Amino acid sequence: MSDRLSAYAPQALAVLRIMTALLFLAHGTQKLLGFPAAEFAPPTFSIFWISGLIEIITGALIAIGFFTRPAAFLASGTMAVAYWMAHAPANFFPANNGGDAAILFCFVFLYLIFAGPGAWSVNKK
Fold it and tell me: Which residues contact 54 (CB under 8 A, 6 or more apart)?
């Protein structure tokens, strides 16, 4: 059973990469384009605006599997900074400070730096 499932590891990695990137991209479009609907519109060139730009660019690159490793490196770092600057000061526990998504994004992107894009990518490895 394990060998049969392992045969699909590159495709499972691709699904993880694509879905994570699309969710990340949605966070960026919410900040910069107001879609999906958002109550917060950051001032141009503020740290939140820049993070939205990074989320859109790296999210798109990771979704299509183009420059996945460098894009994942930038995205992971962005989420680490977001967690420690915006979430951690509010409360120690991620479930209480709203930082669960930032931590998950950070570590999934960290994994992609080492694992590469998997199947269905513009760049292979």
Answer: 28, 74, 75, 78
Asked whether the beta carbons of 18 and 66 are under 8 A apart, the reply is no
Chain segment 48-66, per-residue pLDDT in tens: 999 999 999 999 999 999 9
Model confidence pTM above 0.90: yes
Q: How many helices (H) and strands (E) does the chain have?
A: 6, 0
Interatomic CA distance for residues 66 and 120, integer angstroms: 10
Token pair in block for residue 71: 């894009």
Query: Cα dist. 43→38, 47, 84, 88 in Å?
Result: 14, 9, 21, 23
Give the tens place of pLDDT for each residue, 91-123: 999 999 999 999 999 999 999 999 999 999 998
